[in-house]
Write a structure and sequence with these properties.
The protein has one helix at 3-57. It has a domain at 25-60. The chain has 60 residues and is mainly α. The N and C termini lie far apart (82 Å).
């Protein structure tokens, strides 16, 4: 393999690796955001159930 071809090969390898790292970071951010939304929804439901339970036990 000539020197110029080898440099081009390394450039494309680095480009593919950077693209893969970007896709992995994007997927992990999307997964974390989805988890945060699910957790906040669960906590809101839990707080609603607790509030209904305390109001009914107080005679509300």
């Amino acid at each position: 393999m000539r020197r110029r071809d080898r440099r081009r090969h390394y450039f494309f390898l680095a480009f593919a690796l950077a693209l893969f790292a970007f896709a992995l970071a994007f997927a992990s951010v999307a997964l974390a955001l989805s988890f945060a939304v699910t957790l906040s929804d669960f906590l809101l439901d839990f707080a609603t159930v607790l509030a209904m339970g305390t109001s009914s036990s107080l005679g509300g």
